[in-house]
Amino acid sequence: MARLPAPEDYGLRTPQPSRAVTDISPVRESPDMLTGKVMQDIGLMMQQEAEKLDDTVATDALNKLQEKQLDLTYGDDGFTKVLGGGVIKRPITTEYAEKIKRETEALGAGIGSTAARTKFQQHAAAANRGFTQKLFVHAAEQTDKYRTDTANAGVLVGAQMAKAGDVMSGLAKATPIVEAEIARLEAELAAQGTTALPGVPAPAGTDAPVGQSVSVSSAAVSGYRAWYAPIVDYWRGHKS
């Protein structure tokens, strides 16, 4: 059989595949590349765990601070146990504010991580503001109670003097106290605008039940004055 001519018969070479053809086999990561990625992942995981630990340490210190606040508020030596004239004899606002400050500083000093300490101090600042507010409100309430109890005791002594027959001494004792109370009530009503006194009938010009807040106007102040005025007039009437 006749052979078909090949390219070599004409002096030509058969084309060969070029060695420059790109190798499309999968890229293999070197050991160095794998090690770097693993270390990066480990570093991120360690950072996340450190942040969680900082949060836990800060929360633990805050829990201890709040336990101390509860003890300083309601414990056997808590400031709520100091009543009436006790707040005059014992400066509880300064004393207890200093106690909670020392406790906060001690807890913060015991935290080794700067990040955890910062988080604790931020939370502690908010918690201590609430503690201080309760402290000052209690001190103000007890100071007012002490003043009221003292005034009431003075009026009672005056009444007992009058009942015993020493009317002039009784009047001299009780009348200035009652007049001072009227002036104080009027000033408080005018300044605060929302004070209704428990145990005192709602004043003329208002529809508020006893002990509930009222929107104080000049009519309300006049109503309280009218209610107390007969007391003063009674004492003055016995002077003559």
Secondary structure blueprint with pairings:
Layout: H1 31-74, H2 86-89, H3 92-109, H4 114-163, H5 167-192, H6 218-237
Our count of helices gives 6
Uncertain spans: 194-221
Strand-residue proportion: under 5%
Helix content: 55-70%
Biggest beta sheet attributes: none
Order of helices and strands: HHHHHH
Structural class comes to: mainly alpha
Keywords, please?
single chain, mainly alpha, 240 residues
Describe this structure in words.
This protein is an all-alpha fold. It has six helices and no strands. It has helices at residues 31-74, 86-89, 92-109, 114-163, 167-192, 218-237. Helix 1 (31-74) runs antiparallel to helix 3, helix 1 packs parallel to helix 4 and helix 4 (114-163) runs antiparallel to helix 5 (167-192). The longest helix is centred in the middle third of the chain and has 50 residues, at 114-163. The chain is rod-shaped. The chain starts with 30 loop residues before the first helix and ends with a helix.
